[in-house]
Each structure stands twice: as structure tokens, then as C-alpha cells.
Write a sequence for this structure.
């Protein structure tokens, strides 16, 4: 089955074409045939397309809306010049899988798109006013351009965390606010945490119920997840993706009282403070330089930049807090796993996070940590480490494609 995986943002569409089926999943040999991104939809859009094994194609083209963007993607996919194996017409696209940011309390697993599912996603717009409408545009565009006959599935960022108990998902605020407005912690990056936990389980040949691991998705957005007996027990993002760890430009946890304080002192509006916390904080705000961890590490090494060091240290300390906190909540863990752009690519950040964690059984092997292939999972803990340490590359698109195949084939979801 050739699955088109679509990830629609407010002004962008990312896609992959992945060939998958039951046997390919079993052999772990399902594969990406092509990928790409269209940015700046609504104006002169920037298009990057790439078939596997071929160079990237880049061009600019005016694209009015998401429908025009999905149309451009489909036209490229079936064109002869795209060089994609085995795809020459729209009938070679067998299903579409959409990443949807918010499934609220409504969706606990991936679902096949129908009227009721679309209404469910619409009901969650309140909770994700920027993201869910874009995801819906992607679903509508695919329906219009491919026809009702091509099945579509939705895979939610939130649904893996639907197993969190109330002790993890409730805030310490009046309970009626949860009842009335559904204010609670939902968590995000669920597809990534689920995939990392799944790879770990496969690496160690465990049953799902035996899977106890703390997964660390450290990219531009960052979150940690306590996976207990194969289920999300707690996670660091909350009502929105702003809560928890320090991220590229997001503040992570702060004292909520500083919003009132800052507003009184600076005259900023609530909306401006929200932008400050989401777009001008985190590594970027602390360092005053960049949201890119690679550049901060370079600044530190080459120029001994004090604020670059400060930003990296605060980032790492916050991750340590979650590892320790989750170990306490879970009654210990069997493993931790690093993933995401930072977690996969930075031996230095992994080293700094693990420094001093010997006291709670986490010991990194420097040699293994420094010599790994970022594309392959690796055990990077010391031989005798009580808690195993892994680097596991995430692959949300692959999981979306697999879920789409299972939903469409009416097979039970596994992970
Ligand atoms: P992601 O959102 O998972 O794609 O991660 C993107 C982030 O990964 C970038 O903003 C960088 O901060 C970080 N990153 C990528 N490569 C490296 C590297 N070699 N060292 C440190 N950070 C990196």
C-alpha cells in the first residue's frame, strides 16, 4: 500500500509517500519513496520535493491555499520527472494518513476519516485553534482531489497520552474548570513517544506490558514521556505544547504569576506575552543568539559565550528534573531513550544530561555515546548501568503510514 502522509501546518504542508503493508511492517522494511515540503502557502510558496535516491528539487510558485499545495504535491508525485518508483497515476496512491495535532478527549487512537471523525476534529478546534483547522484543510483537499474512494486516516499527536491517569493530567486548579472547559494536560508528540517506545520494545524483544522507559524527544520542540507498562503514564507538555522542558523558542514551565507581573510592568498584552513565551523564549531567549542547539554548542566551544553555556546548562538541567521526577512516579525505569534533532545528533547534550545521574542508576558510556550513527538506534549505556541508555531515531511519518494501513485494512492497532 502506497500511503501519502500529510502534515499540514498553518502555512505549510509536509508530505512523504511510504510503501507499507503487513509483511513489510513485520520485516521492518517498509520504505519512504519520496518526501517534501511546501512553505509560505498563500503567497509565493517555496517548494522542496525529493524522490528517494534523487537530488532535491526546489522551486517557487504562487499557491493560494492548502488545496493548491496538495494539488501541486499530487501533480509532482505522478509526473514522470519525479522519478518515484511504481507511481504513475493517482490510482497508485492507495490511502492518505494525516497528522492531526489535537484529538482532545474524543480520540484515543487513530481513526478512519468519516463525517463523525471530521466533526470530532472540529470540536477540538477550541483546543488547537491554529493547528486543527489546517489539518482539516488537508483532509478536505485530499478528499476533493483524490475522491471519496481513497481511504484516509487521522493520527493524533495527543492520543498516545490518553492513557494518562487523572493524577498526571489534572492541574491543581478548581476541578470545575476541567469539567466546564476541558482544561487539563493532554500532552503532544505522542506519535514520536509511541514510536520510540515501540523501537525500544523491539530492540529488547519485550512484550508491550513489559515496556518501562522514559522517552526524551529533544528537537526544536521538546517533551519527555514516562511510558509505564507500555502506556503513557505522564508527559511534560500539557494543555498546550508550551509546558515542560525548555525548547528552541518556548519557555517551558514558568510561574504563571509572571504573566500578570510582566503585563503590569511592561504594558504588554496577554497575546504579546503568549507570543513571547512561545516564540522568543527557550534557548533563543536565554542565549540571545539562536534557537539552534548546534549553533549554541559552537558558540560555546569557539567563543566561550557565557549565555550560550547558560542556555545549554538550563536546558539539560530541566531534562534531568523530568528524568528524576518520572523515575519517582514510575517506581524506577528500565531505560531512557534520547531522540529528536538534538537527542539524536548531540553527544555533548546527552553527556551533560546524564552527568551526575549515576546516583539514580543512569551511566552513559562515553565511547559509545561519541561513536554512533545518528540514523541507527544504539545502546549507549555503560555495561553495568542499572538503567539502560539508548539513542533511538524517531520516525513519526512511518508510524502514521503504518497506522493508516492498519486503520484502512481494519487490523488492530499495534505498536
Ligand atoms: P527537530 O525539531 O527534531 O528536527 O530538531 C531540530 C533541532 O535539532 C535543531 O534546531 C537543532 O537545534 C538540533 N540539532 C540538529 N543537529 C544537531 C547537532 N549536530 N547538534 C546539536 N543539535 C542539533
Amino acid at each position: 500500500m502506497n500511503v501519502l502522509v500529510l502534515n499540514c501546518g498553518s502555512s505549510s504542508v509536509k508530505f512523504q509517500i511510504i510503501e507499507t503493508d503487513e509483511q513489510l511492517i513485520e520485516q521492518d522494511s517498509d520504505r519512504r519513496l519520496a518526501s517534501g515540503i511546501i512553505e509560505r502557502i498563500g503567497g509565493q510558496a517555496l517548494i522542496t520535493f525529493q524522490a528517494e535516491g534523487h537530488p532535491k528539487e526546489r522551486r517557487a510558485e504562487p499557491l493560494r491555499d492548502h488545496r493548491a499545495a496538495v494539488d501541486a504535491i499530487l501533480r509532482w508525485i505522478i509526473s514522470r520527472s519525479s522519478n518515484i518508483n511504481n507511481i504513475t497515476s493517482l490510482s497508485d496512491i492507495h490511502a492518505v494518513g494525516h497528522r492531526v495535532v489535537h484529538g482532545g478527549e474524543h480520540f484515543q487512537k487513530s481513526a478512519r476519516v468519516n463525517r463523525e471523525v471530521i466533526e470530532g476534529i472540529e470540536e477540538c478546534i477550541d483546543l488547537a485553534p491554529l493547528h486543527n483547522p489546517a489539518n482539516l484543510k488537508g483532509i478536505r483537499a485530499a478528499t476533493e482531489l483524490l475522491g471519496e474512494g481513497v481511504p484516509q486516516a487521522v493520527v493524533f499527536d495527543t492520543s498516545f497520552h490518553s492513557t494518562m491517569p487523572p493524577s498526571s493530567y489534572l492541574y491543581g486548579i478548581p476541578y470545575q474548570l476541567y469539567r466546564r472547559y476541558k482544561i487539563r494536560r493532554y500532552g503532544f508528540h505522542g506519535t514520536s513517544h509511541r514510536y520510540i517506545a515501540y523501537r525500544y520494545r523491539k530492540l529488547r524483544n519485550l512484550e508491550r506490558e513489559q515496556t518501562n522507559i522514559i522517552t526524551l524527544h529533544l528537537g526544536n520542540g521538546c517533551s519527555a514521556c514516562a511510558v509505564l507498562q507500555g502506556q503513557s503514564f505522564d508527559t511534560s507538555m500539557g494543555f498546550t505544547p508550551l509546558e515542560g522542558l525548555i525548547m528552541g523558542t518556548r519557555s517551558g514551565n514558568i510561574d504563571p504569576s509572571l504573566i500578570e507581573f510582566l503585563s503590569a510592568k511592561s504594558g504588554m498584552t496577554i497575546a504579546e506575552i503568549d507570543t513571547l513565551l512561545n516564540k522568543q523564549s527557550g534557548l533563543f531567549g536565554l542565549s540571545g543568539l539562536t534557537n539552534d542547539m548546534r549553533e549554541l554548542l559552537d558558540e560555546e566551544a569557539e567563543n566561550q559565550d557565557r549565555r550560550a553555556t547558560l542556555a545549554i546548562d538550563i536546558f539539560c538541567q530541566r531534562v534531568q528534573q523530568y528524568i528524576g521526577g518520572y523515575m519517582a512516579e514510575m517506581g524506577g525505569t528500565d531505560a531512557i531513550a534520547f531522540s529528536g534533532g538534538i537527542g539524536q545528533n548531540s553527544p555533548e547534550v546527552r553527556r551533560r544530561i546524564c552527568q551526575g545521574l549515576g546516583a539514580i542508576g543512569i551511566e552513559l558510556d562515553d565511547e559509545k555515546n561519541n561513536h554512533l550513527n545518528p540514523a541507527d538506534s544504539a545502546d549507549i549505556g555503560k555495561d553495568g548501568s542499572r538503567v539502560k541508555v539508548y539513542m533511538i531515531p524517531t520516525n513519526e511519518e512511518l508510524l502514521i503510514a503504518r497506522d493508516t494501513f492498519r486503520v484502512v485494512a481494519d487490523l488492530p492497532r499495534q505498536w
Remarks:
- Residues 219-220, 248, 292-294, 297, 340-342, 345-346 surround adenosine monophosphate (CB under 6 Å).
- The domain at 190-391 is CATH 3.30.420.40 (Nucleotidyltransferase; domain 5).
